[in-house]
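Bench notes, bay 3.
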Amino acid sequence: MMKVKSIVLFVLCALMLIGCNEQTTQTPKGVLIRLPERCMGIVSPRLELKDRNMGYSYVSETGALINDSTVQMEMDIPIGYYDCSFEAQLQLSEHYTYPVRLFSNLTVADDRLIEMEAFAVNTKKDFVLAELFVSGTQTPEGKQYTGDKYFRLVNNSDQTLYADGLVLLESKFKNNKKYEVTPDKKSEAFAVDALYRVPGDGTRFPVAPGGSFIIADNALDHRSYNANSFDMRQADVEWYDVSTSATVTDVDNAAVPNMDKIYCYTLSIWIPNNQGITSFAIGRIPDTISTAQYLANYAYSYTYINVTQAGTFEMSGNAYLFPNEWIIDAVNLCPQSIYEWLVVHPSLDCGFAYVAQTGGDKVRYGKCVKRKQNEDGTLVDTNNSSSDFEMAQPAGTCF
């Protein structure tokens, strides 16, 4: 992978505020983007600033190299709060190009220097999260039903891969609530609340190219309890928790292998957030690191500022860090209308998928997100879940 370097985006702006309740005049701004590698050319540059409040998008697809490591774009934008993204292909030789990307939340208020991060897009083929079903179902009586959540992974390469040792992760932070966290480790690692690992010696779970591997909550025939659910007995593995609560216990299908529990925030049973406001990832812990070593060396304590109607408070929290370099694939989830930020680094996923408008929207039940398919049968994987997934699809069709 190309070495990730920092980039600096210079937004040179001259803005005039016409009135407190009027639209700010749009004026030309030169945008200079420092590239992560020296290059001989740039192909298909695209800079987009999407206004978070008004929903307007400002796009420039005209860029020119002013030296071998800087591209200049032009754009007219008013004062505002934006999601800023840049994509391009860097031409390093006559026959070789590679993709780069930027993504950041950006406040444009006046002339100022804004530092951003550039990174090469990882194009390595491996497993991907192909289908995420975390919202659960409802019974015919309209009651929420749990236990039938699942994740479908697909081998998106052209060779047989083994699911042994894959780790399933859920994020500590939520995409609908932004905090200023100290220390901020997002550029280095994924802060997680739950880690479960597929068992095996390295050859137990072969998955052919294009094949699926299903991780279930409870690998049961849920139709016996809820006519609106699925028969999940064909799942490849399930996660099982030994609960310390006598009233909240898990159910084990002895015919389906259990995942190894590395860590979970709860002492009862892990239920992935059913509002779809967290992020999920799959990865691998290096063979040289034992579970005990991981738990000893990757604990994460942090502080953050919580702003409420009652006041502003400094809070603290704990999680575990999973280094970004160990992650194979990550997917951000957030209801469309309440998204505030991305809790994983944008090199892992610079967008988000959803099944509902709000977290409490009951239309989410029975719906999942499914990764789109390329013409050659492989799955779309651009590390941008906003464009890689089909939203609000019927769940359970893989069983």
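Next record in the batch:
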Amino acid sequence: MKDHTNIVLMALTIWREARGESFDARTGVAFVIRNRVNRPCWWGKTWLQVCFTKWQFSGVTGVGDGNLIKWPQENHIADWKSWEDCLLIAEKVYNGQLSDPTKGATHYHDDSIDYPQAWGDNMQPTTSIGKLRFYR
């Protein structure tokens, strides 16, 4: 049961963070979560801790983030298709069935927000996928 919980929570994090992005970009977000789990640090040691550490994934913990209250809706075809993809991505990344397109990234940001100078200047860019920029 624990695996299923981790997969669903990771899928929700991916969906809230990147549901409008490509399959590859969503896979990148999943790998940021996995890479953090594999490198326990202040952001947590478990899948749950990594997804729910405050302000790390604002769509899950960011007070005031509009995504915080969004849930996949069966009657909204695009959201539901994206949700199904996020579940598939989460399961495959959790089980080690996909390759990491982020080259080991533990952070990312969306081009629609300002460059995160507070942490970005101390990180090495690894790749860009769609509007997402990945760092380690």
